[in-house]
Amino acid sequence: MSGDLALGLFLYAISLLTMAGIYGVIAIGLNIQWGFTGLFNAGIAGFFAIGAYVSAILTTTLTPSHLGGLNLPFPVGLLAAAAVTGVVGYLVGRLCIRLRSDYLAIATIGVAEIFRLILKNEIWATNGPRGISNIPRPFEMWSQPWSQLAFLAVVAIVVLIAYWLAERAGNSPWGRVMRSIRDNETAAAAIGKNVIGFRLQGFVIGSALMGLGGALAAHFFKFIGPEATEPLMTTFLVWVMLIIGGSGNNRGALIGALAVWTLWSATELLTSQLPPEWAVRATFLRIFLIGLGLQIVLQRFSNGLLPERPPKSTGDEHLIPAQQKAPPAE
Amino acid sequence: MVEFINFYLIPGLVLGCMYALGAIGVSLLFGILRFAHFAHGDIITLGAYFALLLVTALGLPILLALPVAMILVAITSVGIDRAFYKPFRKSPTIYLVIASFGVALMVRSLVQLAWGVKVESYSTGGFTPPLILFDTLRIAEKHMWIVGLTIVLVVALHYFLSRSKLGKAMRAMADEPDLAQVSGIPTEKVVRYTWIIGGGLAATAGVFLGMDTQLHTNMGWDLLLPVFAAAILGGIGSPYGAVAGGLVIGMAEELSSYPWIGDAPLLSPGYKTGVAFALMVALLIWRPSGLFRGRVFT
C-alpha cells in the first residue's frame, strides 16, 4: 500500500517536472520575444495550438475523424511543429511587427482567437470541438515509471537545447542588438540596425519555441482540443511565469515556469481533496490568488526572482581609442 | 427585405449598441491613461452579475437594477484603479497592460467563485412576443429598451463632454496631458471620473447582453475583442468614434452570415466573431488612426 503511494507521488513529481519543462520551453520563447526584443505577444495560446495540432496530425494513425494519419515518428512531429509555427509567426510578424506594444498585444490576441475559431470550425481537419485523441507518446510501451521518466528526459533535452540556444543568442552580438532595439529603437536604427528585421527574427524564433512547447504538450496529454488553447492556461500562465521569474533572463524564465507550475499544481492537489462542489469553486480561488500574486510581484519586485543581468563585457574595451576613455582624475 | 431587417439588421444594431457602450470606456481610458484596458471585458461581466444579484435577491425588475449595477461597478472600477493601476501612473505602459490582464483574471475568478459557472438568466421564464410594427417589422421589447437607452446614454455623455467643466477637462487631458496638468486641471479627479463613466457604461453593456441572451462568466471576455475593434475603428481616444465603431462592428458580424451571394450564408455563422477580430487586425495594420483619421498614440 505504501509502495503504491510512493509510486503515485513519484509519478506525480515526474508529471509536474514534465509540465514545468514544457512551460519552460514556452517561457524561453516568450523571453526571446518580450525579454530580449520587447515584443508584447498576447497570443501565445494560438502558437501553442498550431504546434500541438501540427504534430498531432502528422504522428497519429489514419482515422476518418480528422486530417492526417501520416503516422510519422515523434521527432519529425516536433520539428515540423516548430517549423510550421515559425512560418506562421513570420506571416503574423510581417503584418503586425510594426505595431507598438499594446496594439501588438491586441493584434496578437485577435490572431490567436482567429486560430481558435478555425480549429473549432474546420471539423474535417481538426475534429472540431472534440479534438484529436490517441496522439502517440514516445516510450508509452515501457512499464511505469520508466515510460514517464523517458518522456521527462525528452522534455529535459528540449529544454536544455532551447536554453543553450537562447543563452548563446542572448550573449552574442545578435542579443545585444535585440536589447538595444528593445531599450531604444531610434538609437538602434540610427546606428544602422535593421530594426524591423531584427524584431521579426525575435518574433519568429519565439513563436517556433511556443509551437514546440505545444507539440510536447499534445504528446504528453495524448490529446489536443480547442479547449486546451484557452488563453488562461497558456497565454496568461506563461506571462506570469516570465514576469515572476524575471524577464530578460533565460534562467529566470525556467525558474518562473517551475515555481508557478509547482504552485499551480500543488494547490490543485490540495483542492482536489475537497468535496466536489467546493473543489470546483476552489479552482477559481486559485486563479484569483495567482492573479493577486502577479500584482504583488509587479508592484514590489518588478524585476522578478532572477532579474536581467547586463551581458558580460566583451573584452574588447582596449579597442576604444584612449582619448575617448574617461580622463584620469587629477 | 423584411427578413433582412428582422433577422440581420436589428440584431446587428442591438449588438452594436453593446459594443459601443464598452468601446466608449476603452476609448476614454486609452485617451486619459494611455493603455489598453484588458480587464474591461470582465468589468462588463461584473456589471451583468451585479444586476443579477439585485434581480434575484431583491426582486428588482432588470431596468431598475441597471442604474444600481452601474453605480456599483463604477465604485468597483475606481477601487481597482486605486489598488492596481495607480502605482504605475509613471511607469512604462506595459506594466499597466500586464496589471490589467491580472485584474481581468481576478475579477472573472471572483465572479465564478460567487456565482459558479452555470448559465444564468434575468427572466423567470415567460416569453414576451415581439412587437409587430407596420405589420412586418418585428422588434422585441427588450431590443427597443437596449437601443433607446443606449441613445439616451450617448446623448447624455455628449452633453457631459461638451458642456460641463469636468467633461472639457477630460477632453483636454486626452489631447495634451502635460498642458492639462500645468493649466491646473486636477488630473486625479479626471481619472476618477473617467473610471466612473467607463465602469458605468461597461455595466450597462453587460446588463444589455444579459437581457438579450444569457449570463455566463466568459461573456465579457468574449466581448472584449469586438469592443477593442470598435474603439480602434472609431479612432482610439474618441468616444464618438467608438459609438460609430461599435455599430459598424456589430452590423459587420451579423451581416457577414447573410446570404449575399446565392442562398448560402456568405460566411459560416461559426466565424461570426472572427469578422470582428479580422477587421480589428486589419485596421491596426493599415489604418491605426481609425476610420475618421483620429490620432495614433505612439
What do these coordinates show?
The complex is a heterodimer of chains A (about 325) and B (about 300). The N and C termini of chain A lie far apart (about 80 Å). In chain A, about 70% of the residues lie in helices and about 0% in strands. Chain A has helices spanning about 1-35, 45-60, 75-95, 100-120, 125, 145-170, 175-185, 185-190, 195-220, 230-245, 250-270, 275-300; strands at about 130-135, 225. Chain A is mainly alpha-helical and about 325 residues long. Chain A is globular, with a radius of gyration of 21 Å. Chain B is mainly α and about 300 residues long. Chain B contains 11 helices and 2 strands. Chain B is globular, with a radius of gyration of 19 Å.
Give a brief outline of the structure.
Chain A is mainly α and 330 residues long. Chain A contains twelve helices and two strands, in the order H-H-H-H-H-E-H-H-H-H-E-H-H-H.
Entry keywords:
heterodimer; A: 330 residues; mainly alpha; two-stranded antiparallel sheet; 12 helices; 70% helix; B: 298 residues; 2 strands; globular
The total of beta strands of chain A comes to 2
Number of strands of chain B: 2
What's the N-to-C terminus distance of chain A? 79 Å
- Average pLDDT of chain B works out at 84
Strand order of the largest sheet of chain B: 1-2
User: Regarding quaternary structure, how should these chains be classified?
Assistant: heterodimer
